[in-house]
Amino acid sequence: MNDALNYVNTEGLKFFGKVNASISHELKNILAIISETAGFLNDLTELAKQGKELKLSLLENCSTSIVEEIQRGFTTIKQMNRFSHSVDVPVTDIDLVETLDLMAGLSGFLSSAANVSIENKCTESKTIRTCPFLLQNFIYQILCFVYESTGPTGEIRIHLLEEKEKGVLLTLFSSAQMSVEKFPDEKMKKTAGILGIEFKTNHSFYEINLLIPYAVETITQLDPNG
Amino acid sequence: MDKNEKIHLLMVDDEVKFLHTITERLKLKFFEITSATNGEEAIAAAKKGQFDVAVIDLQMPGIDGVQVLEILKKNHKYLEVLILSGHATIETAVTCTKLGAFKVLEKPCDFDKLVEAIKEAYETRLKKKFQHDEDRMKKIQSLVLGQSPLGILKELAKMDEAEK
Q: What is the distance between the alpha carbons of residues A203 and B146, in angstroms, rounded to a whole number?
């Protein structure tokens, strides 16, 4: 087992656990809302039985809330399923926008998460040959780093632009000043190194620039079928 | 029921829909409720209002439930605090209990159990408060014996200062 593979396994397991914990927390919140709303409907029914006036608008609000929470649950389970399947193959072609969207969604369950929007300026959908699970881990780390500064009320804009034949230039704009002296940390550097991701030096208090290559030789180390 | 006869509750949760629904349900059980969607709001509300019991969600952005518990217990001597947690671990329960939480309940929590816990917390608050008032009365009575009027006033001022 080579170093990179060892790193993916140990760090990956931690990442997998963290994401799963946040998903289960989200699902519990959804169930708590559904459970309380159903309970409230029971309370209203009991009051109606006692001859109290039953407001139809309350019933309507309850049913709307239940439908919305079920939809939220479906979206969460869909994201969980996509995330779980990211370990199916060690190296494959992925759509970068889809991966960013998934990580924005999954990291959004964290209480510190800011609002993330993705702006794709690439002329066509660009596929990246990479280790999908490790790339997800990397994006999640970066988003968590930015959340530390923005907090839940902040905004992050992710901007994608083609950079000739090299890859996709990813820029994260933060609404709050980041502590760039802590960026990138050792873990980010190591993950980026395996994925061939380059940290552009022009990052600032409000902006992080990363070059994600279309493909990288070293990634084959992670694929036993190479 | 008169507003003053109700148990005054402070409900704190960042999950707005949950907060809204549980607040509506508790109102039907004749509680007087103020809700807050984050720790800062909760601390500010506690400063303004006289609450009997606070129900606080553990995981919140900004000041989390543990920090809110610590601040509320420090500033409001007789306020009892119930903690609601999506994933209550033994460590969390121990930390919260050490900080003075009355109970840690897992979320989603059975509504009747929550109501029961709030009532128990309220009873505990009353017992502590009555005990304190009784002790204070005994102290005042003992002062009256064998003290000059000025001495009594000085002692009362000291007691009052300690209460602040």
A: 77
